[in-house]
Design brief:
The chain has helices at 3-12, 17-33, 37-56, 64-70, 76-84; strands at 59-63, 95-99. By secondary structure, it is mainly alpha-helical. The termini are far apart.
């Protein structure tokens, strides 16, 4: 860490907890704003691939409740294989994608 950053950190650590928390939040938000464009591009490609898999019937949607019911039944090996094959279990939204069985 540069001397200037070290000095800034020392000063920041003397602030009250609420002010340190606000400062920390602002710093973290600034990192999100500087997200690498290659990461955004990779996510866009992944989303497009998953949409194609759904549209083509390679995967079928199931309800969140069904995904939660199935989750405990999956062994660690099966979960790893599912994820490696491009399958997805999501905890938000109207459903989850899993490979067609």
């Amino acid at each position: 860490m540069a001397d200037e950053a070290t000095e800034l950190l020392k000063r920041a650590l003397t602030l009250p907890v609420a002010e340190r928390a606000e400062l920390a939040g602002s710093l973290i938000e600034s990192l999100d704003e500087a997200a690498d464009e290659s990461v955004k591009a990779a996510w866009n490609e992944e989303v497009a691939r998953r949409m194609e898999d759904l549209d083509s019937g390679k995967v079928k949607p199931i309800s969140l409740e069904e995904a939660r019911r199935r989750l405990p039944q999956l062994s660690n090996d099966r979960m790893a294989a599912l994820l490696a094959s491009g399958g997805c279990l999501r905890g938000r939204g109207s459903g989850a994608l899993v490979p067609r069985t």
